[in-house]
């Protein structure tokens, strides 16, 4: 039988190979209980740590995993690009994966990244089957940030950060009321998801303060759903303005109005959310809640680097400021 390897230690301790590596590096991110389990397995197996070889390996570039729920959406693409560039500047390489809102794929992707020895992870998570993803991350003891969507409640293990969606919903709704809107709809977003509830919350708060009745139309956050809603607005719904869950829905509404010979901003005002690049170039240009997503991505990369290099764990929850960018979709003369 040959000399025991780090993989043998990982199997004996019931943890991942990367967790054993973190223990050998005295990483503060590993719990004391896990540390004891690994050391016991090393002793029982007679594993000898070759520090010279480890130092040689550590001279190579480190890896960070970046897992995104929907890279087809420009909002997430801009975020991922900002993270990757900032991590590169810090001397790490980024492994990027798109999970396409598939929880099983997300769990497999995370498992593969752990096995390939990523030092840390930033994940914009999928909804559903949370334990399959976050359970293995907890067992691995790898620093991991959840961003943009809070799926795991364990923010002590997986600190969460996002733009202030509630404030964004308030800004959008207050703006529409200031322009004279009488009945404002909220359009898009899957019911029951926390990110939908947050973006909708500010809208509901402002309407309650003004004694106005809400009109909520849940649905997929896509252009296609926005186009479907445009016909309903024109033909049957008694409202004169809408706040959309995201810019994709809003751009779909604009497109739907145009196909029916109507122009947004004339009798119907519209506000999107995220301020993706296309918002400024639609016709009419789309008023949108700007989340500063590039700067947010850079901040998340810096936070993870501080966690990895200095053991500085981010605060459990953080919200970053947003602002409303007013364009002609809500104020066409």
Please describe the topology of this protein.
Elements: H1 6-13, H2 17-24, H3 32-45, H4 51-58, E1 62-68, H5 74-89, E2 92-98, H6 103-115, E3 120-124, H7 130-140, E4 144-147, E5 160-163, H8 165-178, E6 184-187, H9 194-209, E7 215-217, H10 223-235, E8 241-244, H11 247-259, E9 269-274, E10 287-290, H12 293-310, E11 317-320, E12 323-325
Structure, described:
It is elongated and about 80 Å long. Helix 1 (6-13) crosses helix 2, helix 5 runs parallel beside helix 12 and helix 10 (223-235) packs across helix 11 (247-259). A 6-stranded parallel β-sheet has the order 2-1-3-4-5-11, sandwiched between helices. It is built from 12 helices and 12 strands. It has 3 domains: 6-56, lambda repressor-like DNA-binding domains (434 Repressor (Amino-terminal Domain), Orthogonal Bundle); 61-162 and 294-319, Response regulator (Rossmann fold), CATH 3.40.50.2300; 165-291 and 324-330, 3-Layer(aba) Sandwich (Rossmann fold). The chain has 333 residues and is α/β, with parallel strands linked by helices.
């Amino acid at each position: 039988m040959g000399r025991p390897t780090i993989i043998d230690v990982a199997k004996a301790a019931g943890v991942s190979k990367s967790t054993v590596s973190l223990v050998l590096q005295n990483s503060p991110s590993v719990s004391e209980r896990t540390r004891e389990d690994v050391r016991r397995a090393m002793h029982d197996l007679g594993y000898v740590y070759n520090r010279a070889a480890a130092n040689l390996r550590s001279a190579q570039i480190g890896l960070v995993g970046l897992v995104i729920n929907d890279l087809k959406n420009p909002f997430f693409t801009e975020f991922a690009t900002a993270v990757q560039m900032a991590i590169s500047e810090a001397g790490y390489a980024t492994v990027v994966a798109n999970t396409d809102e598939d929880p099983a794929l997300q769990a497999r992707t995370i498992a593969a990244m752990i096995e390939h020895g990523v030092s840390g992870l930033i994940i914009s998570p999928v909804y559903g089957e949370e334990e399959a993803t976050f359970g293995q991350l907890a067992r691995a003891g790898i620093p991991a940030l959840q961003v943009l969507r809070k799926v795991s409640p364990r923010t002590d293990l997986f600190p969460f950060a996002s733009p202030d969606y509630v404030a964004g919903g308030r800004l959008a709704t207050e703006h529409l009321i200031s322009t004279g809107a009488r009945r404002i709809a909220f359009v898009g977003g899957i019911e029951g998801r926390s990110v939908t509830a947050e973006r909708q919350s500010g809208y509901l708060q402002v309407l309650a303060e003004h004694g106005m009745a809400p009109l909520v139309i849940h649905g997929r956050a896509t252009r296609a759903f926005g186009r479907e809603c445009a016909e309903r607005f024109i033909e049957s719904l008694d409202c004169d303005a809408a706040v959309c869950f995201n810019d994709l829905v809003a751009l779909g509404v604009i497109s739907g109005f145009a196909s029916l010979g109507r122009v947004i901003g004339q009798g119907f005002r519209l506000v999107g959310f995220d301020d993706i690049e296309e918002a400024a170039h639609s016709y009419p240009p789309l008023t949108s809640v700007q989340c500063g997503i590039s700067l947010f991505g850079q901040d998340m990369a810096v936070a993870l680097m501080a966690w990895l290099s200095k053991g500085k764990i981010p605060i459990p929850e953080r919200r970053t400021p947003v602002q409303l960018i007013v364009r002609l979709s809500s104020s066409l003369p």
